[in-house]
Design goal:
There is one protein chain. The chain contains 1 helix and 9 strands. By secondary structure, it is of the alpha+beta class.
Amino acid sequence: MIDFIYKHKLIVLLVLLFLVGGLWIVAGEDEEAPELTVKPGFLVTVHKGDNTYALLDIKNTGNADDKLVGAYLSSTDAARAELHDKNMTRIDSVALPAGQEVLMTGDPHIMLIDAARGIMVGEKVDIVLDFEKSPDQSVVFTVTQADGHNHEH
């Protein structure tokens, strides 16, 4: 009889530990996380060998900060994509604070370096955004504006 009571209490204890552990794991899934929405603005037309830029908005409706840490092209439209500030200087990241929208409309922006070909009005260019915490997001930009400037660095 004592063995039965002991085994019964042990089983109850193990079930409780399992349930409490499971609740702790479920509670851990509600950790703070960024929730990003990307709205492409436009990509400026460019001639072969020149540089151009892409403008966009990123909204973080989550409850944790994130960072845009890079961008790359899913095609060979340009040699590379970089994050730049208003002085056309390369930067390592763009802060995306929780609950805020970041307008990447010049400071900062995405720079496409050394276009492999001319990119003209109406064309689409796919740029992949690389975030510190959030998954990469592919964003399709439609070339909609020509500004007549050569963006040399």
